[in-house]
Write a structure and sequence with these properties.
alpha/beta, 3-stranded mixed β-sheet
Length: about 325
């Protein structure tokens, strides 16, 4: 396979590149700073300098590719417009380049946020009407619509919470708090969650790039296991050999804190996912999804339930000196 990967220097993209190269696939990466792509160079990846706004770089990157894996995206932005420019418009630029290059298969890494929350005991399915509750979710849904209206043979994957080695933004914060023996949870910790281990997501992406029954379809990809927010924190602590006491944060307090952290970041000219908008995700009954359609259509099975995946993640954090 000849594959282009955007976001190859990021958390999910780096795992995908490793999985592709292990199979001997030829990989091209669109990178904003080749000097910061040491791992890609070591893996023998061909790098095209540029970003999703650089038409000439996109045209070069998509040439002679069998599959385009669009992993890059903004998870934090200063405004709704900034999210749309990064996620919707960046996707549109890449889609146009791919269409002009001969229409390779296009695999979009979207997000469970595009579909919106589920209800307790009823995991979301891709045929339900989407109802995103954040600017990020709306921008990811907009990027999905760009892909759906293209002439490409497309596959859209919606992963939920992603964790694993090299994760700097998601569960590493939970590991650091659990190490102290006390960890806050939004609400009473009963919110239901689905999750996926990053190397398992990479395997799902490989399947999405090749499966004959997949183009033209949207899928949730996660482990079928259903966790709770509190249960996830306890699993993290168990992986570390620790006991942890959970401290519930009521909605009024959580929204107030997130408003302050978001406002502080804005004053400093920074972006953060910990803002008032994010509270619309944190205080829901459930963020669960049904991966059965993808497992059936792609012949894919996630290899790590939370206990195994978190234990492997913890071993990596320790070896890398991140904890």
């Amino acid at each position: 396979m000849r594959a282009l990967v955007t976001g190859a220097t990021g958390f999910v993209g780096s795992h995908l590149v490793e999985a592709l190269r292990r199979r001997g696939d030829t990989v091209t990466a669109l990178v904003r700073s080749p000097a910061r792509a040491t791992l890609l160079a070591e893996l023998g990846v061909h790098m095209v300098p540029g970003d999703l706004a650089a038409d000439s770089a996109l045209a070069q990157a998509v040439t002679d590719q069998d599959v385009v894996f669009h992993v890059a995206g903004a998870v934090a932005a200063a405004s709704d417009d900034a999210y749309m420019r990064a996620n919707r418009d960046g996707t549109a630029n890449l889609v146009r380049a791919a269409e002009a290059a001969g229409a390779p298969r296009f695999v979009l890494v979207s997000s469970g946020a595009a579909g919106g929350p589920s209800s307790r005991g009823h995991p979301a399915t891709a045929d339900q009407p989407p109802r995103p509750v954040t600017a990020y979710g709306r921008s990811k849904l907009a990027s999905e619509e760009v892909v759906r209206h293209s002439s490409l043979p497309w596959v859209i994957l919606r992963p939920p919470t992603i964790y694993g080695p090299r994760d700097r933004d998601n569960l590493i914060k939970v590991f650091r708090m659990a190490r102290l023996g006390v960890a806050p949870v939004f609400g009473d910790g009963s919110m239901e969650l689905s999750a996926i281990f990053a190397p398992d997501l990479a395997d799902a992406l490989l399947a999405a790039g090749e499966g004959p029954a997949l183009p033209g379809r949207t899928f949730y990809v996660n482990h079928p296991e259903v966790l709770t927010a509190g249960g996830l924190v306890r699993e993290v602590a168990r992986a570390m050999g620790r006991n942890v006491r959970l401290v519930g944060i009521p909605e009024w307090a959580g929204r107030g804190v997130l408003h302050v952290t978001g406002a502080a970041a804005s004053l400093l000219g920074r972006t953060t996912i910990l803002n008032a908008d994010k509270a619309n995700e944190f205080f829901q009954d459930a963020w669960t999804a049904d991966p059965t359609p993808f497992m059936t259509a792609a012949g894919w099975t996630p290899g790590h339930a939370a206990a195994a995946g978190l234990a492997e993640t913890y071993r990596w954090y320790r070896s890398a000196g991140w904890l």
